[in-house]
Amino acid sequence: RAYNTWLGKNGFYIELQTPKEGKIFEPIHTEVAGINHLCFYSPNLEVLFHEIKRIAPTCIVKPLYTVFSTALFKIKAPEGTIIEFRNNLSS
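Below the sequence we write its predicted structure tokens.
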């Protein structure tokens, strides 16, 4: 990405970023509104991953993986929202 940063206040963070190289963001659809991607911090990421895998295995779209020093995984809610869980908010 050409740009990626976090804005934080009182433990709440918003990530701002450009698309990955060679990709473009999809246009906003007027028939669909709302959050399309959100992230939660978990100090017990592996335990959380295995619990979600046990109760809703088909929701997992990206199993546990690491980017730099951060472990994360992603699930997809029935309405299409991507929900990310990570163990580190610094990267």
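The first strand starts at residue 4 and ends at 9.
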